[in-house]
Amino acid sequence: MHNGNASTFRDFIVMMERMSQTEELPTATPHEIHARFQDPTHESSTSAEWWRRSVIYQIYPRSFRDTTSNGIGDLPGITAELHHVADLGVDAVWLSPFFASPQKDAGYDVSDYRAVDPIFGNLQDFDDLITEANRLEVKILVDLVPNHCSDEHALFRQALVSPKGSAAREFFIFRDGRGEDGQLPPNNWLSHFGGSAWTRITEPDGTKGQYYLHLFDSSQPDFNWDNPAVGDEFESVLRFWLDRGAGGFRVDVAHALVKAPGLPDWNGRADGADSPGYPFADAPMFGQSAVHDVYRRWRAVCEEYDGERVLCAEANVHPIEAMADWVRPDEMHQSFNFPFLHTGWDGKALKAIITRSLKAFDAVGAPTTWVLSNHDVPRHATRLGAVAPSPRDGDGLGPDDIQPDLHLGLARARAATLFMLGLPGGAYLYQGEELGLGDNTMLDPEYRQDPSFARTNGERLGRDGCRVPLPWDSSSASLGFSDSEASWLPQPQEWASLTREAQTADPHSTLNFYKEALRLRSAHQLGLGDLNWLEDTNTSSLLGFENSEILVVLNLGTEPVVLPAGEVLLASSSSALDAATSALLNPNSAVWISLHHA
Ligand code: NOJ
């Protein structure tokens, strides 16, 4: 039976009646799914270590909860509300940087790795947070930024006032410029945030001097990891937080620490994305083999501590097979799967990257991780609601851009999440996605703080849109984020109906949907399960697999599909299935079906 434009089962019936009255016979049948599977793509893990099946929730401290009424979130705010996160059923929280920092890159420019920035609180606040986390049995992972620090870090300040060639300069990557007067940078490397990756300094005697390397903002000088003193310093930082009870680390730009000898020119892209003639594998600033020795050392440090402390790599490495090198048995435990995040609404492409990921990580005995949102990319409710291609690769949307379809975005985001949470391995969630939040896509330039906005003269809007403070309740003008109306970025109007308080009371809310998905994921041990693709879903519009006797189906197409028999455990929304029989899965929807009870 062809269902034409039917969007619900009722529409479908009405249309069929109309067709039979006019004796117009249907020409095709809706796709029917059969529970037949291909050879296993991934066999279940026999190891019970927590990080093999974990769900880790990212807190972006400045946007979580403000207890000082200054419009910026803080550590006491996290401690006060952590029970909500624990209630979701996550294993751990990863905190984006809260260390002392001039905040030129929202804390990824650290001026003291052993101090809490006063805007977030102090070390006692961190200790209090650990106490509460222990009570709630949630681990706290700290964000370690070892590639670069802030230009206000004591070591960099010392380097600036020390002579060329001094031990102080050896902590960083200082070089003479090219050209007669050294007026050209030492090489042609570009900063991720736009412009040259080199900044020239004025020497202590007032003359124009050497350049220092910064793969990010000029306020973020890169450390020189060829210098053993840098390694010793970071081992000590690691121990500082482990001793205070940190459950481990998310490691920033974990592929970039070591640079190729001689710092050769590179005409490829600054972010390492392949460009003709310049494959990622040849980039002199990424993936150098000596970087792995750093993580072997850190792994050994973590293993001295109790409680399975972990390391997770933010290693923007591709192809995915190369990323697996970061999680070999003596290196990190997990690595973010960005290729999965960047795969769009396309079943074939998703199946391909999932299959490749599982194979690549299985080969080194590590779990694959899955992630759909974080503080660097438009949230998936925004991305998947795009009605026009994004004008800016990887950056957010602004008031002049075609706005996303929020309804479509939320439907697809919930479906994508349900699909993701059915996959074996570890999952990462970004604060606010459990409320179905999208970006603030209407931010005016005056609010933009991401350094990439200024460094590209506004050509790139930057990542502020996905970093907007959370809506908690209706108690204040900042929707309960702060006791005052202050919020360092304005919240979109539609968030008034998306507060945590409002969603707690609504059984169909995105929040309650996330809770149920996480509960079932844990009850059925899906994180440790195996994966068998359905035989007959090898198209861009339909995808399905079986894990631990649960069938996970995602409808990415425009037509409903007929589901096999079985008990529906969870659907991505109250309109995901046809109301009458639950036998049809509507477009932009996903479902978990227990085959055990078929
Ligand atoms: C990756 C972080 O996630 C991002 O926010 C930051 O700007 C860069 N690394 C530089 O530290």
UniProtKB/TrEMBL annotation:
<dbReference type="InterPro" id="IPR045857">
    <property type="entry name" value="O16G_dom_2"/>
</dbReference>
<dbReference type="InterPro" id="IPR006047">
    <property type="entry name" value="GH13_cat_dom"/>
</dbReference>
<dbReference type="GO" id="GO:0016787">
    <property type="term" value="F:hydrolase activity"/>
</dbReference>
<keyword id="KW-0378">Hydrolase</keyword>
<dbReference type="Pfam" id="PF00128">
    <property type="entry name" value="Alpha-amylase"/>
</dbReference>
<protein>
    <submittedName>
        <fullName>Glycoside hydrolase family 13 protein</fullName>
    </submittedName>
</protein>
<comment type="similarity">
    <text>Belongs to the glycosyl hydrolase 13 family.</text>
</comment>
<dbReference type="InterPro" id="IPR017853">
    <property type="entry name" value="GH"/>
</dbReference>
<feature type="domain" description="Glycosyl hydrolase family 13 catalytic">
    <location>
        <begin position="58"/>
        <end position="467"/>
    </location>
</feature>
